């Protein structure tokens, strides 16, 4: 799975910062904690990141953001820009596909109420559930009767491998049968041509026998 790290964010214009924005630099891989008084731009920073990563799930027409950012996707440096209700991503000067799927935007947006209403264990479970589309994999496994037993998994893997090998063998046998059928058609065509040539030879031999008899009859 690819890893995306935001390195730098420049907010040029956002609601509350129409005439002058601010820059968030020296961001590190992993968790970054941004603090400050009211009006410092903490929520604006989160909204700006959401606009760049999930523009379809953000309110671009209302926010009308002007943003610049630098990110790292694995070992590639990306540049993100939001201008005129459009978000663009580029790598080494060339266009790059969008980074975020709009369907996953809500998984990475937790409110203060979510953070305060849960203890650390519940919050960890909440984050895990949201990253899996809002479903609890453990509960789903119970409902479906899934057994994480390694032996069963190995048995299933072995059965799958054996089935694939049987399928390949059947496909190979089918291919050989098709080749034999093609050769049989060629042999039948050659046999028909040989039969036709034999009939022509017989007709020619009969004609050769008839010519002397006709000549003898004409001079008698």
Which superfamily, in CATH terms, is the homologous superfamily of the domain at 4-102?
P-loop containing nucleotide triphosphate hydrolases
Report how far the terminal alpha carbons are from each other: 104 Å
Quick one: biggest sheet? 6 strands, antiparallel
> So how many helices?
6
Radius of gyration: 39 Å
How would you describe the shape? elongated
Highest-level CATH class of the domain at 4-102: Alpha Beta
Q: What is the total tally of β strands?
A: 6
The helix-and-strand class reads alpha+beta
The share of residues in helices is 40-55%
CATH architecture label name of the domain at 4-102: 3-Layer(aba) Sandwich
Average predicted local confidence, pLDDT: 82
Low-confidence stretches: none
Quote the beta fraction: 15-25%
Quick structural gist:
This protein is α+β, with helices and mostly antiparallel strands. The chain contains six helices and six strands, in the order E-E-H-H-E-E-E-E-H-H-H-H. The longest helix has 70 residues, at 150-219.
Task: Describe the structure in your own words.
With 220 residues, this protein is an alpha+beta fold. The chain has a domain at 4-102: Rossmann fold, CATH 3.40.50.300. The protein contains six helices and six strands. The chain has helices at residues 42-53, 60-63, 112-116, 120-131, 137-144, 150-219; strands at residues 4-13, 22-24, 66-73, 76-83, 86-91, 94-95. It has a six-stranded antiparallel sheet, covered by helices on one side. Strand 5 (86-91) and strand 6 form a beta hairpin. It is elongated and about 135 Å long. The mean pLDDT is 82.
